[in-house]
Design a protein that fits this description.
The chain is mostly helical and 189 residues long. 69% of the residues lie in helices and 6% in strands. Strands 1-2 form a two-stranded antiparallel sheet. The longest helix is centred in the N-terminal third of the chain and has 42 residues. It is elongated. 18% of the residues are buried.
């Protein structure tokens, strides 16, 4: 039997979201070292030096605040930016776990999309499992981020919420779509 249009669309979207999810999980695994490198660069810039130890030109910005001209030193701006990128200490060790779980969930999403495209009889059940895992993981990430008191982590909450909304939309499409192509066909004698 011919693959339904909804299965093609959902399958392609699941593959795309799965690939991006795997890449996002890999990024989350690398995040502690990226943040450490960024922290070192910001510290050097706030001291007025480049990372190789050379003196940096003194840069200032002139802005108008409440009608009064105000000068902002580049080094002060770097110090305030450092504050925005602070994460809790536990994040450095747990981000690897978060990244691995994200990669597993995204991999499940990817595989379910491939099997939807192949119209395997177990593809819809696998897709339901992938959607459930994705929604549960997004909720867990949003709760952890909201409890962290870190602006950097709290900025990830909108991504988790949009992931849940997209998952629910995809689930509704699969629930209302015709499943005839996914029922094993019996051979006529």
């Amino acid at each position: 039997m011919k693959r339904p249009t909804w299965a093609t669309i959902i399958g392609v979207l699941a593959i795309i979201f799965g690939i991006f999810g795997v890449l996002g999980g890999a990024q989350e695994i690398a995040m502690p070292s990226i943040l450490e490198m960024q922290k070192e660069m910001m510290a050097e810039f706030s001291k007025g030096e480049t990372p190789d130890g050379k003196d940096m030109p003194q840069l200032t910005l002139e802005i108008e605040e409440e009608g009064e001209p105000k000068r902002i030193e580049f080094s002060q701006m770097m110090e305030s930016m450092q504050e925005q990128f602070k994460v809790p200490e536990w994040y450095e060790s747990w981000s690897i776990v978060f990244g691995i779980v994200s990669m597993v969930v995204a991999g499940l999403y990817l595989i379910s999309g491939i099997f939807l495209m192949m119209t395997k009889d177990f593809a819809i059940k696998l897709f339901y499992i992938a959607i459930a895992a994705s929604v549960i993981w997004a909720i867990i990430q949003a709760v952890i981020s909201s409890q962290s008191n870190s602006g950097f982590l709290m900025a990830q909450i909108p991504g988790s919420i949009s992931s849940i909304v997209i998952d629910i939309i995809l689930l509704i499409v699969v629930l209302v779509g015709s499943k005839e192509a996914f029922v094993p066909q019996q051979e006529e004698i």
